[in-house]
Every structure is written in structure tokens, then in C-alpha cells.
Amino acid sequence: MPRLPRTISEPFLGTRLKTEVLEIARAHAGRDTELKRAVIGRLKQEMAAVRAEAERLLLEEGCGRCCSQRLSAFQDAVIAAAHAVATTILYPVDKPSRAERMAIAAVGGYGRGMMAPGSDTDILFVLPYKQTAWGESVAEAILYLLWDLGLKVGHATRSVDECVRQARADITIRTSILEARFLVGDQELFEELEHRFDTEVVEGTAAEFVAAKMAEREERLRKAGQSRYLVEPNVKDGKGGLRDLHTLFWIAKYVYRVRSTGELVAKGVFTREEVRLFTRCEDFLWSVRCHLHFLTGRPEERLSFDVQREMAERLGYTEHPGQRDVERFMKHYFLVAKDVGDLTAILSAALEARHDKPVPGLKGMVERLRSGTRRTKLKDSADFIIDHERLNVADDQAFARAPINLIRMFHIADKRDLAFHPDAMRLAARSLSLIDAGLRDDPEANRLFMDVLCSKNAPETVLRRMNEVGVLGRFVPEFGRVVAMMQFNMYHHYTVDEHLLRCIGILSEVERRTNPENGLANELMPGIKQRNLLYVALLLHDIAKGRPEDHSIAGARMARRLCPRFGLTAAETETVAWLVEQHLVMSTVAQSRDLSDRKTIENFAAVVQNLDRMKMLLVLTTADIRAVGPGVWNGWKAQLLKTLYYETEPVLTGGFSEVDRGKRVQVAQAQLRHALADWTDADFAGYAARHYPPYWLRTDLDTKLRHARFVAETEAQGAALATRADLETGRGITELTVLAPDHPKLLSVIAGACAATGANIVDAQISTTTDGLALDTIALRRAFDRDDDEQRRAQKVRDAIEHALTGEVRLPDVIARKLPKGRRTFSVEPEVTVNNAWSNRHTVVEVSGLDRPGLLFELTTTLSRLNLNIASAHVATFGERAVDVFYVTDLMGAKITGAARQSAIRRALISVFEGTFDEEEPPRRLRA
After folding, report:
1. Pairing relation of β-strands 381-387 and 375-378?
2. Which residue, of 40, 320, 624, 894, is most buried by count of CB atoms within 10 Å of its CB?
3. Mean per-residue pLDDT, 485-499
4. Which residues, at least 6 apart from 371, have a Cβ–Cβ distance to it below 8 Å?
5. CA 461 to chain CA centroid, nearest Å
6. One domain, residues 761 and 908
7. What's this protein's family per the entry (predicted)?
8. Domain check: are 780 and 736 in the same one?
9. pLDDT grade for 925, boundaries at 50, 70 and 90
10. 362 in Cβ contact with 344 (< 8 Å)
11. What is the rounded distance in angstroms from the CA atom of residue 328 to the CA atom of residue 331?
12. pLDDT confidence of 728, banded at 50, 70, 90?
């Protein structure tokens, strides 16, 4: 077929296609089956060619709106051809009556004249009165042709009266007709519908429509995820996505009776630049959506990790130092989502000025804005007023007169607990150029900023608004570099700036002690003398992400430059820089080291140096982990941090401890005894004696309680081996507990059984009792959304573990068939460290690399084949990265000191990640 023109207006396409299809239909007239087969064949041929050309032009030009309009124009041509065949060949009427009229309109997204490759085709058959036999036959013929083409067609057949009546009663139908576009048929009939819709439905109902669409938007965002900074966003329905733009236009069209966004300039709603911004956002989002549909071959709307890299390549992004192409693409996406949010706020302000929208914002749908004004001046600042209970500028020169007002506005809002008026935010966004080096170095501006950052009110809320309007990134340019920056991994759920702001919110929560999940941090926070340093450190701890060097070291360097500007002393600056540089240490040690090993504690104490720093580091670590995303923080991690803190405290205080080790074991036992009120003292004493002190210190109370009842039930049944499963819905995991006689290969067998059923281990706690039993808790990544499906999956895993431990199945054969094949979304360079300085008694082997089902089995099997005893294992995953640490000795109980043998261990473990793992025997070079 000839190449489609680059212009969007393509009337010749419909005319040519209709002419060709009619000729084919006439050649087969009277033979309906052959006619339909021939027409469908020609249309399918044309459709394939048009879609291929549309994709080629999209790749070449990068214009998403153009692609969507080309696809829509072709769809128009197809419907016109189908209508011509139905009315001219199949069901011709020589002298149609007034009842034998029909108009076909595109509605919904198709009505806008824009379609993605996988979009539905939504059409409305408009009738003058009730349905006739002729109208029913024509509509049915057209629909069957479209269905035979493989199109997903949404359709309705209504008279004009029915359209008006149903539009009054149903907002969804009203929205659909609002975007109706005439395609083919009786145009007068369509114009009658438009006129009656305007006069009988739209007129006088603007406030009702706005309220309904905003409520609909809130519900949609609640389902899709409220944050626009989720790292796997939904292009269509997510916050800042296409549906938000569509909602803006629906409201503008309904309230202001415009046909295009450009007309909103004359209405005083948008400036010309804001209309251009709307167009840029729309073009980018349509480009992403069209590429996504072409790439996946289906109407996929979610930018999941497995498509983000290919999407970045298709859209032409390249790698920069410190940032991969995919990260640059996603940063652009989130900046566009932010722009969509800004446009939403602008329209919101315009609607309020017209009294068509309730106060105070998009979420407040309770009361209508009454006529009249409620504006009061602020006594302490003539440049600001309170406008309908929100902070607004006194006039449009407020920032130009005194640029410091760009910071003072947020300070006032924080102190007075005021929301921001959209007009003030809009003016602030237009005034960002006033924030220059002079304002950044202004001591008063920095004092105001520090007051906001360290506020005891709601610092996260105010900082978030400061970030959304662009002031935060402009005032702290280092922060500006991480705005909308995503990290291409499965661990972090949010962009860097969103993560940092959530950290501030969680620190504020810790300070108020409102959430017991924060554990020891709640207890320590009141004793921290320099609380402001924690707020600064949390704001800066990831500020150097996206650079080629270690972000902790680079971040500490930035902190040393920024803190004096913020008004901190040299000593305070050094403390903040230390917290930034060491912000990962406590998490790493707690999750990846043996906390009962004296050397672990001594090494950690050497890093933190004093008790005050350790307190601050624990609070910072708690906030940092909790702000990563839902389900990342849990009772295990809280307990591990608590254990590390109390194990290190005596070292830092010269032997004195506020709560010594023995006392803490007694407290933990007393807590469990209280929870097991139905047990006798003798039963509890016998059970307590079976656990070593580390178990009592590192295991949280809920897990200890489950373990106690599980062990008692197992022994009551006379079983030597038992498993149980608990669903942790909030964390997205299933927790397996295994009780079995301990032996060197137990962990390897459990891991192998999990791999054999396709279950992926993301965390593990390994415990041994004094009477030779192993009590292991294994966290598996959840596989199903429905609890009953997940329970069935968990039962299969439990059966596999029990069969493997009793020798009923041969694991290597099963695992070889189960391991996933094909391209992986992520790549992680494997690293193996063999270290004798981390423990006095053991060699510590730390392995990190790309996680996958079966990895732990392969690693533990390899260590066993190397004749190494695993004394303890610490299993953790951070998204796609597995970090497994094994405390090992040789078969004689000695450390591995020989350089050759250490090298052999490294080579063998690296081979697991390289795909050369052999279940039967180690590589020949390792046997010696």
C-alpha cells in the first residue's frame, strides 16, 4: 500500500478504501458468505499494512499523537467501508422513511480521534426513534464485520431520546456522549443529538459533573496506587497518566464548552505555554502507550520492569554516566506525570474561581463554594493572605518584590497548618528563576527552610508541595538532580525524591511515636539531642544517586558542602556527613552478619564509635527501610536492628549496658510466657531451655509465639518432621516454618525443594535447638493474589520439602526441569567475598548476585561439595539482588586460610551465576 501521509487529515484514505471494498462487495453480491470473506480479507490486509506503517513512522518520528490519530483515521475508514457495504449492498433502501435513518458516532477515547494499537473501538448507533428491522440489520452487519476483523468493539444503539435520558442519569454515558464524534450516516441526526445534549443535559450541571469526575478520579487512583512516582506506573490509569489528562479535558469541555485545549487560553484557564505543556505531555504519554502496545502485542498499560529497557531503546534514550538509558526514560516519564499534576491544579483553581468546584481541592467533595469572598490579610506578612482557609499571595508581585517569599510561603503554611491556594502555587512555579545563588546563600532563607524541614508539624506534606512546585529542587539543586529519578531495580518502589520525602514523614512519625511498627526507633528518638541532624541526614542520604561513584561517599561530600549553608556548625556537619556515608551499614550488618559472633559486634562498634551516633543511625535506618516501599519493613528486621543495637551497646559504653544481654533474654522469655497463658510453668520452662540466647534476641514475639505452638503441636502428634505456612498479605510473602532434625545439608534440601516447586526464597531465619532440631523460617515471594490459591501453592511447597527431607524425591533431577529459561529483566554482576576478619571462629563467605528460584539450593550445594560446614546462614534479597552470607569452616572446624582454596570457593560460587552449576559434582579444577 502507498505510504500514509504525515498529515493527520486523510480523507482520501476513507474514500479509497470504501471504493475498493464496495467494488469487492458488488463482485460478490448475492453470495453473502463469499462477500463477507472477500471484504474481511481486504480489510485485514489493509489493517496489517496500516499498523505496520504507523509503527514505522512512530519509530522514525517519535510522534505519539500522530500515531494515535493515524490509527483512529484508519478505523474511521474501516467503519465507513463497513457502513457502505451494509447500506448499499446488503440492506439497501430505495426510499428510506424518517425512521430508517441512522448516524454512527465514535465515542469515548475513540471519539477524541486518538487510538492506541490495542484500544477498543467504541461506537454509538444513533436512531431517530425506536429500533427498526432495517436499523437492526445494518448495525448487526457492521458489528459482525468489525468483530471478524478481530477488533474489540464497544457499542450501543439508542435513539436520541434514550441518549439524553440515560446521559442525565449516568455520568459514564454522559462522558461518552460528551466526546462523541460523527463518523458516517445521517449527520442531521447526530447534530440533533449534540444540540439536545448541550441544552438538556450539560446546561446548568457543570458543578455536578466536576464533582462526579473528580470522585471517579480519586477512586481510580486509589486502585492504581496514589503516588505518581511508583516505579512501574500505569500509563493510562495511574496518577499523572493519560486518563488524568482526559479528565482535565472532559471537565474543560463540559464547563467551558470548548472543542480543543487551545480554546482554554481565551477563556483565561491556561496560558499559551500551559497549553503547549498539555500538548507535550499528551504527545509523550501517547508515544509511550503506542510503543507499549506495539512492543507487547496487547493492550498493556503498565510499564513493568520487563518492558522498560526495550521501551527506552524504542524511544531513543541513551546511557549517561551514572544513569542507564532506562533510568533516563523513566525520569522523563515521572517529570511528565508531575506536569500533568500541575495542569490539574491549574484547572482546579480556575473552576473554584467560577464556583464550579468544591473547596479545598481535588479530594474535597463535601461542600459547594458559596458566593462571596473570605480573604484575610496576614499580620506578620503583607505579601500573603488567607483565601478561603488557604494560603495565597496578596498580589502577583509577591515573589518578584522579595524572592525569599518563595521559601517564606512554605514556612507560613507549616506554622499555621494551612493548605496552599492553587493560584499561589501557580505563581511560585512561574517564579522559579528568582531562586538564584544569592537566595540559596541567604541565611534567613536557609533558616526558614530548616524550620520547615525539621518541623514538628507535618514536614513531609509541606516539603512535598515544595517539591511539586519546583521550589525544593531549585533551592537545593542537588535535590533537584534526583527529582523523578528512578532506580532500575525491584527493591525501590518509588523515585529517589519520593523516597527521601517519605523518609522525612516516617521520621516525623517516629518522633510522635504513633506507630509501634517502628520498634526501638520510637524508644530512642526522645533521647536524641540533635534531632535536626537526623532530618537533614535523611533528606540527603540518597541525594547522590545517579552518579558513577558510590552514592554514600559522594553524598557525604555534598553534605559537607550543604550543611554549613543550612546553618550547621562544623561538628554538626561532620555528624550529618558521617550518617550519610554510613547509612547502609547498620542494615547490612543486622541482616547479613551473625549477631551472636563477637567479632561482628566489635567491627560494627568500630564504625559507629559512640552511643549517640548508633542511636541516630538506628532511627535513620528504620526510616530508610520503611520508606523503600510496602512490605519491605517487617518484624524480623526490627528485631535484628534491636539485637544489633543492644549487643553493641556494652562495647561502646565500656561494658555498662542499660539492658544487658542476660536481662534481655529474660525479658523476651517473660513476654512469650505471658502470651502463652494456657501453658504450665513446667511446659514453658522445658521449651525455653531448648533455645539458645541468640534465638531469643533476634526473633520477634509474633514469630516466637507461632514457633512455640507449632513445636508443641508437632510433638503432640509424635512427628519428627513438620511444616506450616502463614500468609503475610501486607508484605507480599508466604512464610514457611520447618521443624526437622538438624543436619549439615538441611538448608540446601529445603532450598532445593522450594526451587523444585518454583518458589523463590527472599528471606530466611535459621535456628537450631539445644536438643538437635532445626527450626527454620523461610519467606517466599507470594505467587497468587487470592489467598486460597496461595494456600494451595504453599501446600505444594510444604509437601515438596517433606518429601525431599524423607528422601522420596531426587532434587537435582526435579530442579533441572523447573529452573526458568530465557532472557532476564535485570542483570547484577555477581560478587563473592571470602573474609576471615569478620569472625573469630568462622570464614565468612558473602555472595551477591541476581536472584532466581533455586539459587540458594545451588549455593549451599556447592559449599557442601567443597567440604565446607555451614555454621550459620543469613539469607536476604533486595529486589532482584540476592545477598547470602554463610559462616563456614572446613570439616575439622577450622577457618579457610589457604589462598588457593579461597580462590576455588570464589570460582565455584561465581559459576553458579554463570549457569555452569553441576548438581552432580564440582568442576574438575575444584576437586583437589
Report:
1. antiparallel
2. 624
3. 76
4. 355
5. 20
6. yes
7. Belongs to the GlnD family.
8. yes
9. very low
10. yes
11. 5
12. confident
Give the separation between CA 185 and CA 138, rounded to whole angstroms. 11
Grid cell digits, residue 477: 539543586
**615 within 8 A of 649, measured Cβ to Cβ:** no
Residue 919, φ and ψ in degrees, nearest 5? -70, -25
Q: Shortest CA distance to 796 belongs to which of 761, 753, 752?
A: 753
Q: Which of 203, 227, 249 corresponds to the end of one domain?
A: 203
Length of the chain equals 928
Q: Evaluate if residue 648 carries a pLDDT over 60.
A: yes
Q: What is the DSSP letter of 434?
A: G
Name the residue type at position 154.
Answer: G
For 504, the grid coordinates are 522525612
Residue pair 611/556 in contact (Cβ under 8 Å)? The answer is no
pLDDT band at 655 (very low <50, low <70, confident <90, very high): low
Q: Answer whether 732's CB lies under 8 Å from 767's CB.
A: no
CB atoms within 10 A of CB 602: 12
Cβ-Cβ contacts under 8 Å for 787 (sequence gap 6 or more): 727, 729
In a domain, 589, yes or no: no
Residue 523 domain-assigned?
A: no
DSSP state of 236: T
Neighbour tally for 771: CB within 10 Å? 9
Of 689 and 656, more confident: 689
The one-letter code for the residue type at 464 is: R
Cell numbers that stand for 811 in this block: 532434587
Q: What is the pLDDT of residue 811?
A: 61
- 390 found inside a domain: no
**Helix and strand tally (H, E) in the chain?**
40, 16
Are 234 and 186 members of one domain?
no
One domain for residues 239 and 253: yes
Indicate whether 253 and 178 sit together in one domain.
Answer: no
Is the pLDDT at 364 greater than 50? The verdict is: no
Band of residue 365 on the pLDDT scale cut at 50, 70, 90: very low
Q: What is the DSSP string of 491-534?
A: S--B-HHHHHHHHHHHHHHHHHT--GGGTHHHHHGGG-S-HHHH
Q: What is the DSSP letter of 87?
A: I
| C-alpha cell belonging to residue 610 | 559512640
- Choosing from 182, 203, 224, the residue where a domain stops is 203
Same domain, 224 and 149: no
DSSP string, 797-818: HHHHHHHHHTT-S-HHHHHHHH
Whether 619 has a pLDDT exceeding 50, the answer reads yes
**Does the pLDDT at position 919 exceed 60?**
no
Q: In sequence order, what are the residues at sequence separation of 6 or more whose Cβ sits closer than 8 angstroms to the Cβ of residue 638?
A: 517, 518, 519, 520, 622, 700
pLDDT at 712: 93
Alpha-carbon dihedral sign for residues 608, 612, 613, 616: positive
Note whether residue 347 is domain-resident: yes
Query: Do 199 and 228 share a structural domain?
Result: no
Predicted confidence (pLDDT) at residue 565 exceeds the cutoff of 90: yes
Question: What DSSP string describes 570-624?
Answer: HHHHHHHHHHHHTTTHHHHHHHHS-TTSHHHHHHHHHHH-SHHHHHHHHHHHHHH
Q: Which amino acid is at 412?
A: I
pLDDT value at residue 225:
54
Q: Which domain range does residue 68 map to?
A: 11-203
Question: Rounded mean pLDDT of 301-324?
Answer: 87
Q: If you average pLDDT over residues 644-668, what whole number do you get? A: 81
What is the grid cell recorded at 726? 502463614
Q: What is the pLDDT of residue 5?
A: 39
Q: Average pLDDT, whole number, for the chain?
A: 86
Q: Ranked by mean pLDDT, which of 12-21, 96-105, 133-142, 626-635 comes out on top?
A: 133-142
Cell of 128: 431517530
